[in-house]
Amino acid sequence: MNCLGDAVIAVDPGKVVRYSNPRCLKLLGVSFERIEGQAVNRVLRVLAADTREPIDIARLVTMAIDSRVENLPPGCILVRDDGCELFIEASIASILSQSSAALGAVMLLRNTTESWKKIQRLTHRAQHDHLTNLQNADSFSKHLDAVIAAADEHSRPFAVLFIDLDNFKEINDDLGHSVGDVLLQHVAQRLQSCVRTSDIVSRRGGDEFNVLLSEIEFLQRAAEATERILTSLNHPYSIDGREIRCSASIGVSLFPRDGESADQLLHAADAAMYEAKRKGRNQLSFHQADPLT
Questions:
Q1: Burial level of 147, CB count in 10 A (0-12/13-18/19+)?
Q2: How far apart are CA 6 and CA 204, in angstroms?
Q3: Residues 141-150: tens digit of each pLDDT
Q4: How far is CA 93 from CA 42, 101, 108, 223, in A?
Q5: Do 226 and 250 meet the contact criterion of CB atoms below 8 Å apart?
Q6: From the CB of residue 106, how many other CB atoms can be counted at a distance below 10 Å?
């Protein structure tokens, strides 16, 4: 066991640590004297990665003794004494005597931090726009569908904004794509500064953006929030020593009035945005004019 590449730790039936190989001591960042005779839950502080709820290792040891083998749920975090957090995977197997009596359990732990970080980077890249780091269109639609699926009769309405920059093509053509890219990054930052943490901002592609305004009690609140965004986007931008102006047209749809799916709400907001363009740009338009009741 001292030569194994995986970390190994063994406990007796009372869930007290009785053995650890060098790889495990290195993983935990402790000496054997520090953990010998300690309860396994004190030695192995493990959290679920998604909820950060503690995982009861002693209970899993009991289950392993009963069923011969158990595995930690995927995506677990080991918290070391120094506060360092590592992603791990682990299996627990019972230790039996020749007469099949339970003598304890042995755990094999593997540090999967680099693999999990790579997965997280790839997941983030798949869900976010590379230029602005906002959610991309596909991720926004999925989030919107999830919010709709969780809604019930007690849920407050929410608004979906479809934002199109009015004169971005001219700026991009006249000043170059590098300036246009910086402008889009500035727009993304302003959008995020205008919304609450419960709201979602997304770059749809090109010079189009979406915003989910959560829990809008009535139309006036949605109008006020959208007006703040319009005002912010209409302020001049300073890029490479130039003052650039770029207004926006915004269409607004409301759940559940204007649709009960992501596609319906986005289509309604898109149609309202084109109505704002038709009316002269640099303004907002609701898919329907009548207020919520």
A1: middle
A2: 45
A3: 999 999 998 8
A4: 19, 13, 9, 60
A5: yes
A6: 19
Locate 190 and state its tokens: 């302003």
CATH 3.30.70.270 in the chain, residues?
128-286
Tokens of 257: 């009035």
Other beta carbons less than 10 A from residue 214's beta carbon? 16
The H helix count followed by the E strand count for the chain is 10, 14
Domain with CATH 3.30.450.20 in the chain: 7-118
Q: Which two tokens stand for residue 96?
A: 């039996």
Q: What CATH homologous superfamily does 7-118 map to?
A: PAS domain (3.30.450.20)
* Straight-line distance from the first to the last Cα atom of the chain, in angstroms, rounded to the nearest whole number: 70
Among the residue ranges 93-102, 188-197, 212-221, the one predicted with the least confidence is: 212-221
Alpha carbon distance 147, 261 (integer Å): 10
| Secondary structure in 3-state letters for 110-168 | EECHHHHHHHHHHHHHHHECCCCCCECHHHHHHHHHHHHHHCCCCCCCEEEEEEEECCH
**Is 158 within 8 Å of 252 (Cβ atoms)?**
no
Task: Give the pLDDT confidence of 183-215 residue by residue, as tens digits.
Answer: 999 999 999 999 998 899 999 999 999 999 988
Amino acid in position 105: A
Host H or E run for residue 161:
strand 158-165
Length of the chain: 293
List the catalytic residue out of 199, 207, 258, 270: 207
**Which numeric CATH code is attached to 128-286?**
3.30.70.270
What are the structure tokens assigned to 53, written together? 């709820």
* 12 in catalytic set: no
- Confidence at 292, pLDDT banded by 50, 70, 90: very low
The band of 25, judged by pLDDT with boundaries at 50, 70 and 90, is very high
Give the pLDDT confidence score for residue 293 in this predicted structure.
41
